[in-house]
Amino acid sequence: MMTEPFSVRLDVRSYEIDPQLHLNGGFYVQYADHARFACVRAAGVSVEDLLGSGLGPVNLETVIKYHHELRGGDEVDVSCAWEWGTGKTYRVHHLLRRLDGTPAAEVSHVSGLLDLKTRRLIPDPDREWRARATDPELLGLKP
């Protein structure tokens, strides 16, 4: 099993800054989304193929915990760690860290896979992700 979660490095851009001169709150969620989709691609899953098969990933709940501000010009590492249970949902946790290791924020999602025809969550999302991944360990799944 992997010891370190998947991570991407992002730059805080000037147009993402709010009037208090720190990263606007909505961008924390966008950074988490970017890291999650980069992780999915790195695991070998084609989101286009997933959608083409009639399934779409959805977030049912998003929680942001702020620790230290990010400002324009900062670089941030955004990790992506998946947590699987036995139901229709799973969790994805993101830790945003400054390059010095200081935690800036945590973003956590409760997610599922939506059947795009019936508009209902499928019962075994882990099975669908595992079947599509060439490296399921990146998604927290055993091969």
UniProtKB/TrEMBL annotation:
E.C. number(s) listed in UniProt:
3.1.2.-
Offer one Pfam family short name for this entry: 4HBT_2
Q: Recorded GO terms, molecular function?
A: hydrolase activity
Q: Which UniProt keywords apply?
A: Hydrolase
Keyword Magnesium found: no
Q: Is this entry keyworded Hydrolase?
A: yes
Q: Which InterPro entries match?
A: 4-hydroxybenzoyl-CoA_TE, HotDog_dom_sf
Q: What is this protein called?
A: Acyl-CoA thioesterase
The major lineage groups are:
Bacteria, Bacillati, Actinomycetota, Actinomycetes, Streptosporangiales
